[in-house]
Amino acid sequence: MSIAIRPIHPVFAGEVSGIDLTRELSPEQVQALEAGMDRYAVLLYRDQPLTDEQQMAFSRHFGPLENARGGNIPIKTEDRRLSEGMNDVSNLGKDGRPLARDSRQRLFNIGNMLWHSDSSFRAIPAKYSLLSARIVNPVGGNTEFADMRAAYDALDGGLKAEIEDLVCEHSLMYSRGALGFPDFTDEEKALFKPVRQRLVRTHPITGRKSLYLSSHAGTIIGMPTPEARMLLRDLNEHATQERFVHVHRWRLHDLIMWDNRQTMHRVRRFDESQPRDVRRTTVAGDAMTVAQAA
């Protein structure tokens, strides 16, 4: 059976069939999936019971994995639940039980409920993210995706011209600070130092433009902060209208893959007294969107 991709939303997102991700892929299969990502930006694979090793092996077909350090509050090696190369975005501690309500790790991860693009807070932001469902929470926990290409296309010409060359600063301190996260340690402040990103990105293959927004964006270079945050809020409200958003309702062994250069996403609230085990691999990007400050 050959790979097929059917649309699952009017403007983006597709469901892939005809592939077993537990097996080694051919160059032709990888090429077909890359082309699918360029077109749909979000791909769903059903019924893929992956191990961590298989998920990492599949992810590496699209580039090297991103170093997880810097994407969360520092956790001691002995306290990590997953192996190196895996990002733990579950609600579980190393003992396999849901984190306590006042757990600092849990409070930090609540920020994933804000619209964001993975690793926009890195000087070289991420390419793809891949999320595998190992335990599905019985209540809530949908993941929503917004097509930032379609959102850009729908802007009027005047606004497109106004934002074309704007540069934002992104940091995990902006997104978590917006939720009232407790004070950051000196180590975390150094780790989460703001980086610069273009507000409008151009896809390297298709040439299509998209908004590059995220809850991590807190300022715009050369613009007063209240004015910048109002513009960013307006753009976020525009980009997350229902017509641009696909809602994914998780099933066990789903794998979702998305292009961080062309989408935003967020998880919705769920019953945190019950386990939710979702594991992410992140394919590293290969270029800055703009030169960084010294």
Overview of the molecule:
The structure is a single chain. This protein has a 7-stranded mixed beta sheet, with helices on one face. A 3-stranded antiparallel beta sheet has the order 12-6-14. Helix content is 23%, strand content 22%. It has 294 residues and is α+β, with helices and mostly antiparallel strands. The longest helix is centred in the C-terminal third of the chain and has 15 residues, at 225-239. The protein has helices at 27-40, 52-59, 104-109, 148-153, 157-163, 172-177, 186-191, 225-239; strands at residues 4-7, 14-17, 42-45, 87-88, 128-135, 143-147, 167-170, 195-198, 200-202, 209-211, 217-220, 245-248, 255-259, 263-267, 277-283. It has 8 helices and 15 strands. It has one domain: Clavaminate synthase-like (Double-stranded beta-helix). The chain is globular and about 50 Å long.
